[in-house]
Each structure stands twice: as C-alpha cells, then as structure tokens.
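seq:
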Amino acid sequence: MANVRLEEISRQFENVLAIEDITFDVPDGQFWVLVGPSGCGKSTILRTIAGLESVSDGNLYIGDVLVNHVPARQRDVAMVFQNYALYPHMTVAENLSFGLRMRKADQATIERQVEKVARSLDISHLLDRKPKQLSGGQQQRVALGRAIAREPKVFLLDEPLSNLDAQLRDDTRVQLKQLHQQLGITTIYVTHDQVEAMTLADQIVVLDRGRIQQIGEPQAIYAKPANRMVAMFLGNPPMNVFRCIYTGEGFQLGGQFLPCPGELQLRLPLVPAQTLDLGIRPEYVEFTNPKGTEDAERRGELRMEVSVVEPLGRETLVRGCLPESEVLLDVVAPSDWRGRPGDRIGIQFDLNQLFVFDPTTGNALYP
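struct:
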C-alpha cells in the first residue's frame, strides 16, 4: 500500500484543458472520493493516476516514487471500470486470477487468493460460471475481486456502481465500505452521486470544470461549503439558493421580506442595496400557519406557492416558488403533510442556518 500525491497536475488534450493545478495527497490506507458533475475532470484524474493518461504538467507520486513516466503496468495500481471489463471467455475463477497469472504467481498462491477474495465478496458459488451467466451485481463483484486479488498498492474505482439498480447499488456500497475496512488499501473512487461520496469517503474532493473546489470530510463540506457550486451539489435535495437585495434591515426577495440575523450583520459587513445570493437547506424550512402580515414579517415568514408534491415515504418533498418572483424553493415536510399544487402556504426559515454567497464569484461569504 502507498499514499498518492498529486502536485499541480494538469492534463491538456489539444486545445482543451481537462484538469488544471490539481493538488492533493491521499494518505496510505484512506478512502477518498472524487465527486462532481459530468465533465468536471474526475475520471481524467483517475486515469492519470493509473497511467492511462499522461501528465501535461506537474508531478505525480505513488508512495515516494515519481511516476510521471512510469508505464501503467509498472505502477502497481488496480482499476475497476464502469463497464466491468471482464473477459467473457473466462470463468469467474479465471477472471479473478488473471492479474496474478500475469505476474507469474505460483499456483498455490493463486488458489489461496481466489478463494479468499471469492469468500469475502460472497461469490464462491459462482467460480465456474462465465460472465454472461451472472447478474449485473455479480459481475461488479467479480470485477472488484479481480482488482483486489492482486493486492495492489492503490485501488482506483471509476463509477463502479452506476450500472446497478437502486437496491443493489445500496447493498454493494455497504459491502465496498466493509471491504475497505478489512483490507485497508489506499482507494480513490470516482462518482457523480453525492450520496455515494458522503457515505463512503474519508475525504471528498469536489471538482468543477477541471479544478478543485473544496477538499474535506463529508460532513464538514456539507456544513460549510466553500462556494455556491459545492453547496448546491452536495445535498439531496440540494440547497435552496436565490438572489436577494439587502435593505439595511433584512433581505428583499421579490415582493417579500426576510429579516437579517444579528450575528450575520455583525460578522459580514453589508451595504444597503447590495445584491447577494442567500442559501438555506430544505430541512431548515418549515410550514407555518400565518397570524397576520406584521407578525409574519417579524418572524421571517414568507408565502410560497406549491408547484409539485413528491411523497417519499418517511418524508414529503414540496417544490414551489415565491409568488410573483423567480425564487424557487424545496421544502422537506413530514410524511403526513397534505397539500396540492397551487396552494399558497406560509413557510419560515431557520435564520441561524442561512448561507450568503457572492453573486459574482459564488464564494461563500457567511458563515
């Protein structure tokens, strides 16, 4: 096993700069997740670590060895692809042992490793089958097992669960986390699914348009996103972010008013008529019963028109907007909430959970 260190790595394809100035250090044995929207460069980073793409600029280390010009086969990393890439003419046992046979391991070692990996992934009963005789989840476990059997220094996974159905994806995610706890192999995992990122990672690297936006522990990034992109990407449903104008006492949202918390006024120097982006997570918005306009404004109550109601079992997601405005909102309501599209209802923000972003740069200004 080994740490992986990237120092100002860039990768350019002709006139397109796919990734730029990527710098991070994955400690030995940790599980890091690269996450971001499609086209953000996360798979390019993974392929560069694997040696499938060359480095245009910067230095890449595996352990203490500079590997910029080391061929992929000599880097001692194992990669699992989105499409599994199993050999269709080989049995499961032969697929699992392929890497070991290429290294010319002795037969006793091969048999021991195949048995060990098959047992840990619960595929011992499938060893004589061919890939076409397996389900998608079974094929994915074989692909994982083939990489694990080699006992590589670094384990690279490129959206390995994206082809699985929802239940199987959840089950395999749990199994993958347990497997990492047992083996302790340095792992870098690529996904666009923020739920996978939050549940699997020791540390998350959030990417957008080829650059790192933020690195940190999942809950820390969720609680204090560095910018608007991170805030809206991590969270399901995503953070509500909307444009407003500071009036000197609060925020004007369309034709409605939201008071400004005292702590926010103290910590963030605001200028009347300043345009800002406010953010609040859906779980910090609740429905209210209005008791008059004056009292409602003092308490920070707003009026919302319901657009869509999505029952989700233990909770209900309510989507809507502020009347006569372009402010869109998601609200997480109790499962027994009853409402329908077209209803106009009162909502109230937890003012202690407000975020403020620069509308131009998107950088977080508060907290």
